[in-house]
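Why predict the complex rather than its parts? Because the way molecules touch one another can change local conformation, and only a joint prediction can capture that. The input here totals 369 residues.
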Amino acid sequence: MEPVPAPGLATAADLDPADGRVHTIAGGAMLTTVFLEDAGRSGAGRGRAAAAAAAASPSTSSSDGEWSDADADEAAALRAAGFPTSFAGSGLHPPRRPRPRREGTGMLERFPDGATGVRTVFGGGEGGGGEGEGERPSPSSSSPPSHAPPRGPARKYYAHRYSLWSNYDAGVLMDGVGWFSATPEALARHHAARTPSPSLVLDAFAGCGGNAVRFADREGVAVVAVEMHRGRAAATVANAALAGPAAAAALDAVAADFFTVAPRMRADAVFLSPPWGGPAYARSAKPFALEPDLGGLGAGLASLVSAAAAAHAPGAQLRVAAFLPRHARLDQAIAAAPAGARVEVERAVVGGRLKGVTVYYGTWARAAG
Ligand code: MGP
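Output of the joint prediction:
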């Protein structure tokens, strides 16, 4: 392990992403790197060659953002199979698993009969077409989640759809915000693999489920996906169903504001992948500030981590992780740690590109040495 002098290191991007060594940085935190293969290139689901062939074909969907005959056929097939293809204003009809309703005060109390015992609740979040709080408007984020190629700035992410969802063609539902904030599948699976089992994980900014579905796919892990946009919460449930019955059974979604529901949670681990302010987050060469307002969220990382700490089950060890921009201010990420908590900053290199950093707090962070 090689110590990196503090406070000189402002961002993870300051170090060559190819440098996979473990460093000690400010405050005794560890800086590690994970190298992952891009799910869109690894042959999982539909491979890159097939994607390229599809993009080359004028009759199939591509990153040009237009609907094609193939998309329309696919949407019709999905509807026929009972899957939602959008959650437009008039009705929210996510596929619901039959699950007994129980009386109780808190919708997120852990049930005595096991880690998966959390009710599916669609709360009073925003409607299918609205912007969530803290999300800067973008032309493509106003449409309800659907399987259609996005328009506007999210088109760039559609080009990477198999990296985000190797099973994209099964009918994955996304919207503009979902597109730009989805964690690459390989990385989301890595986050899940680092999660203890059994455990109840709270995904505080679930979007369309890029992380939540991978957590739910891990054996022994149950997930509560919190997303204040109702349409995205429903898309998360639908996308979990596409991952298989086990993932579907292990995930529940709540359309609510994380800060409001956090004190009622009883989680073993809390995952934070907040909005970074839209696709323009990386335009400035300046390190990305996490305080006092992370990407227009109206709160900084320290407040998020403290809400996440309050969302733990009584007596549970602190386990919080935050996925942040690759040029995030590491000094602020470290300062956000609750007193005495261990910190690990993990750079995520996917397909050879530094995609972001995951900051793990408490017992989710690896111990030095
Ligand atoms: P990117 O930097 O916008 O794209 O997003 P790319 O293609 O890596 O970089 P570019 O240099 O070619 O422009 C990289 C990854 O960061 C995305 O796949 C998401 O996982 C994540 N990400 C991006 N944004 C804007 C957000 C966000 O607002 N919130 C969260 N949680 N993740 C984001």
